[in-house]
Amino acid sequence: MSALAGSSATPQTPVVDVHDVTVAYHRRPVLWDIDVQVPAGKLVAIVGPNGAGKSTLLKAVLGLVPLASGHVTVFGGTLRSVRRRVGYVPQREAVDWDFPITVSEVVQMGRYGRLGWVRRPGAADREIARECLAKVGMEAMGERQISQLSGGQQQRVFLARALAQDADLYLMDEPFAGVDAATERVIVDVLRGLRDIGRTVVAVHHDLQTVPEYFDHVIMLNLRLVAAGPVGATFTGANLQSTYGGRLTLLDQAAEAIRTGTVAEH
Amino acid sequence: MDQLIRLLTLQDANTRTVLLGTTLLGVASGVVGVFAVLRKRSLVADAVAHASLPGVCVAYLVIGDRSFAGFMLGAIAMGLLAGGFIAFVRAATRTKEDAAIGLAVGGFFGLGIALSRIIQSTPGGTKAGLDGFIFGKAASMVSTDAMLIGVVAAVVLLGCGLMFKEFRMVCFDREFASGQGWPTLRIDLLLMGLVCVCTVAGLPAVGVVLMVSLIVIPAAAARFWTERLTPMVLIAGVIGGMCGLLGTALSATLPAPEGGLSRGWPTGPVITLVGTAIFVFSLLLAPERGVVAVALRRWKLRRRIASQNLLRSVYEHLERGGDLGGAWTPEVLNSASARCLPAAKRAGFVEPVGGGLVLTRAGRAAAARVVRAHRLWEMFLISGASLPTDHVDRDADEIEHHLSPELLAQLEARLAAEGRLPAGVPRSPHETTPAPRDAEVAGP
Known about the structure:
The complex is a heterodimer.
Chain A: E1 16-25, E2 28-38, E3 43-47, H1 54-62, E4 69-74, H2 79-82, E5 86-89, H3 103-108, H4 112-115, H5 123-135, H6 151-165, E6 169-172, H7 181-196, E7 200-204, H8 211-214, E8 217-222, E9 224-230, H9 231-234, H10 237-244, H11 249-260
Parallel strand pairs in A: 3-7, 3-8, 5-6, 6-7
Antiparallel strand pairs in A: 1-2, 1-4, 8-9
Helix pairs in contact in A: 5-6, 6-7
Chain B: H1 2-8, H2 13-38, H3 42-63, H4 68-92, H5 97-121, H6 130-135, H7 143-162, H8 164-172, H9 174-179, H10 184-206, H11 211-222, H12 229-253, H13 267-285, H14 291-321, H15 335-339, H16 341-346, E1 350-353, E2 356-359, H17 361-384, H18 392-400, H19 405-417
Antiparallel strand pairs in B: 1-2
């Protein structure tokens, strides 16, 4: 299946090329034979029901989960060669928000990749962190301890940290989850700003209503790839029905059989 | 007492070296412990410590004599084996990490105790000093042992200093670090390696059973005093150093219990008790996070709420009578507000007149502010949150006390934009009924 049928719209090579990727946790497949490409300079949403493998797809691209089969190329090469050009925004719940660290120090972590081993962030890095906090409307909160932040502010700090990395491709795991209206506005503006300077953003997204407004492309996922392409052509009722309208029970049963190691007698 | 002073003034060369060694060990354990605790891996240190006992025993059986360096090697080897065992059980089976650590602690320590009993039953076996490894015996250390500990401590401190940024990142957000291309597994292993080296070096002084407390307690206590990592590391280092110094000195000077231990107290328990005392002190008295400070803040908040309620009750009572300058009696207050009456008098809000009380000019102004904030909030709730009018009083009650000046200004701006901002105190959007006495107060 050619994921982006209209790839003539993107003359450059895709930013991310996921080729025949299968990922399994404890032998149970959570992504099955995924072929998908991400075009450059677009805002791309990954949608799908719970357990569809949305976060896993991001982690597969980042090399954070082992691939059972297939391969991923980023900017036409291996991930290892382009690490610094890839920024990651994990789910907010992934960290301990009572950690003894200030907002500014979290954002400075975006610079760590450029600093390399042992070297500490300097005045220039702190200045960049300050600018990135300003971009998400939090320049006044740099010295706060992170436990004092609201959920929306936490998400903005994660976004600012990614901005500080100055990457060409951003992978974001549910950046809009549980944020207030003001934060949602800020995030949308930041994403559009990134697109305007030619960056690519791939975000796991839960709110189907806002997909056409916020994103250019959509990847519809449910264990396998249902559809991918420009929102206008792809985000259709029929595709939504096959993404959310119940799993293919046959695939589910097969996955369960693999997990439990059941061997069929033929 | 004389002995303690002589000890602390370092008059004896060997004592001096031993005290310096255990102090350095405490500093290093405190520092590396911060990262172990923040990484939620402190129990691995416990497993490694317990696992090192059979390592020490095997080393004695192989060497046939007491050799500090040999014991350390045996301990490290067995500690690595325990670490590998935990990692393997977790990865290869569905056993969770805490259960895997429990298995390692119990299994290896049981083996160690069995081996040490066998060794002690052999001729000359008691001179191995294995009992000292269980609860720690700094007194049996010689200056070369202490120097070795000092070298280990220096290596651990250097490692933590150089890798400060990497450790912080992996402790806070390992996934982000991996995404950025850092070899997080190797950073994790380096951190755990430093924890293990520190743990093993501390065994002769602190013992396998309680070594984990020298890793955990300084970090846990330091967290109460700061919200940032750099100060936390420094404070934990100081606390760890104090544990090492005071623990060793006290254990060597406390009189041994009647007919009890042959020579003084074991060091491990005394170090742990010193640390626990520091922890309890921090828990109670730290300025922001301490139990006392938190209770005091809550109490002040309750007082403020009660005194605001007093002013509002009186204001609404007088408003119904049409004369804000009129006299009233404490009968109009519920018991929580009535308890604030002396404070309101001291603040100059209330003064006695004849048989009753009146609001002073300042009291009327303060009451007007409180009532205004309450009613503006009610107006917002009715229009903005579409709550029915008879529901808003309770909600406004809870929130109005927490309305900061900025929030109040926002509220006013919003009502002004809608053309509804009243000058002065607005009329209540619902019938004000007299506050039922004691309705919201339970208990004394």
